[in-house]
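ok trying again, last paste got cut off:
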Amino acid sequence: MLKLLNLTEDEHDQFIEGHPHGDLLQLTDWARSKQLTGWYSRRFAVGNEADETLGAALLLFKKVPKLNHTLCYISRGFVCDYKDPLLVEFMLNEALKIAGDEKAYAIKIDPDLPLETHRDTIGFLESIGFRHRGLKDGMSKDNIQPRQTMVAPIDKDDKELLQSFERNNRTKVRNAIRRGTKVYRAERGDLQTFVRLMKETGQRDGFLTRDITYFESLYDNLHENGHMELFLVKLMPAEVAASLEADLDKVGKDLEKAMKKKDGSKKENQIKDLNNRMEKLEKQQQEIEEIKKEHPEGVILSGALLAQSGHKAYYLYGASSDQYREYLPNHHMQYEMMKYARDNGAKTYDFGGVSVSPPEDSPHFGLWQFKKVWGTEVSEKIGEFDYVLHRPLYTLAEVGVPMFQKGKVKLNQTLKALKERR
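nice, full thing came through this time. structure:
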């Protein structure tokens, strides 16, 4: 016999973090962070006669402007065994009661279930009243959360972790480590620096960025319980100078050895390559001396927000400067964050959404290229589902509003094009 349980916030979070289908977005910390953007939450848990918790759900609600209705969003779905139909139906019935109390026009879920092992769950959820929104591309704007993400297993030692990366990426990581950057866990006050980097990244890559209050809300609600850390990467001029000096010394010795070899095309090519390498290092040496004068304490080059829930770590947000990209700060940062997450109990590291194997002219190609070289695999989920409670309002919100927004964008593009022709 199934029954409702009254769990404390800590008990709820412990269940979420320990369940294979648990997710960061089902934590009470996450719900509190969403209050800034107008969401509020309710939750429930289900157990058996022995008071053993079998399922839990955190329901987010957001009011529809100018109407006495809300949207109910159960981010990453009910946390339970979806192979147990009685349990899922019990949880749905309880969610329907709560959604009714909050006058929701629909319940939206996107379970953290692999398509490979839960394809039959799509049909089951449809059979109990859900509408499947399809198997959309991982970067589709039609879904709230990406259906396809890149996930790397990180429960291995440093050597095995590095070896799991693609060969070219291993070389970049090793070079990044020895080039004189320092990766460190930053504090709340450093969010200002992170936001500055975020704006710089948005301008470079053409996307809108959030203001500091959003990131402060995330950090304030998730950091205290170990669910979020801010990482920054600093270029250390003195360390770079020492590394360059060592490289120059080595190239000089290699050049001496090459000069002693018998004459021939092989010798000439080697000397040419070494001289080019020497010239490049000397140029870098001059540059780093200028950096030492301007920034004796170092320069922040990149940053990221890393989140964790139980055995799952998430690369949530990343940003980097336009300057000194040749020092590969992001490569050093990702490797250090993966190790940090592993040392704190994570077994997987989620790089976030991707469009899988897009064509080279796709705007998402660069993201795919970056995320696929870290020993990652595509995590393809079963997608997003809607349980419609108020059909006219649902049709307006899910069809009418998006059509209006797309029409507005096209109109603005047309007006802009006409203005440019004048």
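cool. The chain has a mean pLDDT of 92. The radius of gyration is 26 Å.
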